[in-house]
Specification:
- With 369 residues, the protein is an alpha+beta fold.
- 24% of the residues lie in helices and 28% in strands.
- The strands form three sheets. Strands 8, 9, 10, 11, 12, 13 and 14 form a seven-stranded mixed β-sheet that branches. It has a six-stranded mixed β-sheet with strand order 3-2-1-4-5-6.
- Strand 11 and strand 12 form a beta hairpin.
- The radius of gyration is 27 Å and the shape is globular.
Length: 369
Amino acid sequence: MNILAYLLSAHLSALPEVSSHHRTARILFGSRTTEEGDEEYLQRFSDILLNREKDATFDALHKSLPFMWNNDEKYDTVNPFGDPRQLQYHALWTFDTQNDVLRYTSRHGCSQIPLALLRERVWRHVLRNRYNSMTLRVLARAIIRLSTLDFEVRSNTGGHSRRGVHVWITNLPAWEPFNADVVRVGNVYVVLCQAIQEGLSMAQQHVSSQDFSTTESPSTTAFGEPQAHYMILSVKHIMLCHATSPNSLMYTVPEPLFNGDYGVGPPSDLALDYLIWATASARPRIFTPLQSLPIEVHDIILDYVSGGTVVAAKVGCLLGLGSPFLWKDGPLEVTLMERYKIRPTGSSVESEVWFGEQKSGIVYLARRS
């Protein structure tokens, strides 16, 4: 399909005596024939502008956009849509650096967004904005399934030539959500919330509604008092609480968990410790005579589990076998993949994490660093 683009610079003359109507701006026109979709283009634009200063926008786009620019500059822009000849074109992207906007035009209409959004990392909408309770329950369910090893790793050993990203920005998770905002996971109550303070209030209300003398409680204090443990989960943050009575709720400092930008703020070690500790009672406990063997023997056994090290690592976690997983496959680094990588037959194993029959979008591939 044919994609068109205009790149407009700021006015060359900023003199006050020259009216804005008569100031000249550079107008570059380009085109490209491609099979890439609109979302892939947006991701590409974001990659170009990420962390760029506003003044560097025009030069960065001119240098890195994949369009073939005409040698002659234009004095105006043309909208090809609305004309019978429009059928040969899929879309027109107009980068107006003067007004700092990106306009998208197609036969279906026109829309625009600030270029400033593309200078920031474009994350999925559910992590950029406040999302509804159903999305919260879906995301929280994924976190709990991962931490309790309630997932399947499917290995792809064949080649494929698919292109694009594993998860489109418009995709919503398809696996089953939690059915409430306060759910029991093992011996812990998980409180799902948009903000930690909101979750703390929900935990307090839940504590007040419990009859500690009659309700099954997960544990007791050193003095034999029943206590209830809570994990407050906002996806972006995590906090642990415990209560020994309706009027006694103690809690930790919130720790950053999944805030949508691993490069800027990865989960803290303590946040992951909280998550692993809180869900420990919900993970399956499997006892096997193999556990009495030396770790070196464990590692040899796990090498025969699968062609990919991610599957072997999960089996090792389930059975309590083997050395810590170092995210290696021989000399190769096992890395998280955001996009499909063309893989000829014989390539290293691609490992996809599934929740039942639903893709999670988490894909690992061993490759050279």
